[in-house]
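User: Sequence in, structure out. Go.
Assistant: Echoing your sequence, followed by the structure tokens.
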Amino acid sequence: MRAAELGEMSTFLAVAKHRSFRKAATERGVASSAVSHAIHSLEERIGVRLLQRTTRSVALTDAGERFLAELAPAFDQIARAQESLNTFRETPFGTVRINLPTSIAPFLLRDVMVPLIEENPGLKLDVVATDRLVDIVEEGFDAGVRFGEVLSRDMVAVRIGPVQRLVVVGSPDYLSKHPRPEHPRDLARHTGIRYRFPSGKMFNWRFERGGEVIEVEVDGPITLDDQGLMIEVATKGGGLAYVWEDRARPYLDAGTLVLCLEEWCPVKGDLFLYYPSRRHVSGGLRVLIDRMRI
């Protein structure tokens, strides 16, 4: 059904309610002549007279009465359907699907998810963690989390926290058998626990100090695609790992891992939650943004 036809029927409902072309025009914010034209077009299209009009009054024909009885509930249902969407727009309700990197998922949402659900019982979070670069629109996500350098320009991006950094860690046992590295170049003499992205690309270790930037391609017999596994291998003395500090923090505090090259591991910021449009942001996504925003 064309929009013009829906407009004609909506105009008919206004005239039937007010029994007046002038009042119907006022309600719809149009000229009386536009109302008259819409009713004439509707009657011509369906081939039935719906209204009897004189200079003083407007009345429904028998056909008009029947048409009104059938049409009014349908438009009421449309109005209720539109009104029901207010729940999604104004309150945190429904499901928010979010995609974020596996490597930072545990500590990125650890202080967010449970309090958010407790405060908003109508809200559900559907979280998919993957280090694969995802098109959130194509794959049906409401939002994603990535570092700024890999964001598309057509996305709305909100800087979120906590700020992270990558660090080199090794076990005391491993470091008792190998000289502790003092410079990134020393890693050439060490066993590295390597990380591979889902795309197949290897992740090089990047260091910075005093404006000097060094990127190192480490060597080692073990390649993994999960930082949790990398940490486990490192605690067993399998080599040095380059992981998010927060992932390694419990092991560092327990003394089962030790920091190396700390002065070469600067804070890595610019972590963003991003989504496709500023228009029609759901209430659920809005509270998630507010909770994660720095």
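User: And one key feature?
Assistant: Residues 123 and 274 are 19 Å apart (CA to CA).
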